[in-house]
UniProtKB/TrEMBL annotation:
Pfam families: ACT (PF01842), CM_2 (PF01817), PDT (PF00800). One of its GO terms (cellular component) is cytoplasm. GO terms for molecular function: chorismate mutase activity; prephenate dehydratase activity. Pathway: Amino-acid biosynthesis; L-phenylalanine biosynthesis; phenylpyruvate from prephenate: step 1/1; Metabolic intermediate biosynthesis; prephenate biosynthesis; prephenate from chorismate: step 1/1. Its EC number is 4.2.1.51, 5.4.99.5. Residues 1-92 form the Chorismate mutase domain. PROSITE patterns: ACT, CHORISMATE_MUT_2, PREPHENATE_DEHYDR_1, PREPHENATE_DEHYDR_2, PREPHENATE_DEHYDR_3. NCBIfam families: CM_P2, PRK11898.1. InterPro entries: ACT-like_dom_sf (IPR045865), ACT_dom (IPR002912), Chor_mutase/pphenate_deHydtase (IPR008242), Chorismate_II_sf (IPR036263), CM_dom_sf (IPR036979), CM_II_prokaryot (IPR002701), G/b/e-P-prot_chorismate_mutase (IPR010957), Preph_deHydtase (IPR001086). It catalyses: chorismate = prephenate; prephenate + H(+) = 3-phenylpyruvate + CO2 + H2O. Transmembrane segments: none annotated. Residues 279-356 form the ACT domain. This is Bifunctional chorismate mutase/prephenate dehydratase.
Length: 360
């Protein structure tokens, strides 16, 4: 390509960038106007509106004519909204830390990068931080496609006054990261127990007999491996990067479709968007047909159940509570009626939240 052609295309790109810049700032000013209107109307709390954000992102995806992919435009507009909101007041978001965990990636995917992040040691601490109001929102893992439910999150939801206000689904890709010059030099591997479970076949095949040391997070595993040339970590590529660990084997997880679902916790339920999910926990006295009867109203109203999970009840031995995910919002007329009928039969019915379905 000759120099003149390159120069002229770049001049055109500069012109486009100037227009994008002016438009983004015009958008930020409009978002600030919304904030003032909310203030004038006496609305308290933060200005984050999960239902509106889902609507904005879905509209952009529908309007996208390419060549950028839907995932790319979603990510770009997510960041624009994040910056607009931060101009009003940055959100504090607590998540299962430390920095570099998959949960942090999920928090950034959901809220964008213009947040004040609060990495905490464990799932319980994330719940407490949001319950006390120290953080506006929290992000915790709830389910992995290979390893199943994160039971601690389910148990904590049962007792918490918090609402689920969103969900994030993320592909989980593990790397073997190490400062060792070759695989034969690795004497120990650090990871979170879920990291080991999700990479068991690869490790059995390539590193049999090597000591496996479970630690609190994959990010902590990367930190420890960065201190020892004979150690490796099973962690995300971003955690490896954070601790300047070379990646020896990328995408080492068993099963190429390894994904984790995360929940976003807040204090108020978002409004219906037309594409929502509702999470419940239910129980009924133990008797034949008890659960089937309790779920019958869902079938009668044609509601779609996407998950049913049992957990031991805190009330007694060999008693169970059931976690149910449904498509729809608790304020949708059919779901509302079904919940009303279930309430009459249930010994426990708690709506954990209605929230926009994840936008991937
Ligand atoms: O529409 C609103 O309520 C806004 O505050 C504006 C806006 C946006 O940038 O589009 C910003 C923050 C909210 O979370 C949702 C949307």
């Amino acid at each position: 390509m000759n120099d003149d052609t390159l120069k002229s295309i770049r001049a055109r790109i500069d012109g486009i960038d100037d227009r994008i810049l002016a438009l983004i700032n015009e958008r930020a000013a409009a978002a600030a106007e919304v904030a003032h209107a909310k203030q004038a109307a006496g609305e308290s709390g933060d200005y984050y509106r999960p239902a509106r954000e889902a609507e904005v992102l879905r509209r952009i995806r529908d309007a996208n004519a390419g060549p950028l992919t839907d995932a790319d435009v979603t990510r770009l507009f997510r960041e624009v909204m994040s910056a607009c909101l931060a101009l009003q007041r940055p959100l504090t978001v607590a998540f299962l830390g430390p920095q570099g965990t998959f949960t942090q990636e999920a928090a950034l995917k959901h809220f964008g990068h213009s947040i004040e992040s609060s990495p905490l040691d464990n799932i319980d601490a994330v719940f407490r931080e949001v319950e006390s109001g120290e953080a506006a929102y929290g992000v915790v893992p709830v389910e992995n496609s290979t390893e199943g439910m994160v039971t601690h999150t389910l148990d904590r939801l049962l007792s918490s006054p918090l609402q689920i206000v969103g969900e994030v689904e993320m592909p989980v890709v593990h790397s073997l990261a190490t400062r060792a010059p070759e695989i034969a030099a690795i004497r120990r591997i650090y990871s979170h127990s879920q990291g080991f479970a999700q990479c068991r076949a690869w490790v059995d095949r390539h590193l049999p007999g090597v000591e496996r040391i479970p630690v609190a997070s994959t990010a902590e595993a990367a930190r420890l491996a960065s201190l020892d040339e004979t150690a490796a970590a099973i962690a995300s590529e971003s955690a490896a990067e954070r601790y300047e660990l070379p990646v020896m084997q990328a995408a080492m997880q068993d099963g190429s479709r390894n994904a984790t679902r995360f929940l976003v916790l807040g204090r108020e339920s978002p409004e219906p968007t037309g594409e929502d999910k509702t999470s419940l926990v239910i129980a009924r006295e133990n008797r034949p047909g008890g659960l089937a009867g309790l779920l019958a109203p869902l079938a009668r109203y044609g509601l779609n159940m996407t998950r049913l999970e049992s957990r031991p009840s805190p009330e007694g031995m060999w008693e169970y509570v059931f976690f149910v995910d449904l498509l729809g919002h608790a304020e949708d007329p059919d779901l509302k009626r079904a919940l009303g009928e279930m309430q009459k039969l249930a010994s426990l019915l708690k709506v954990l939240g209605s929230y926009p379905r994840s936008i991937t």
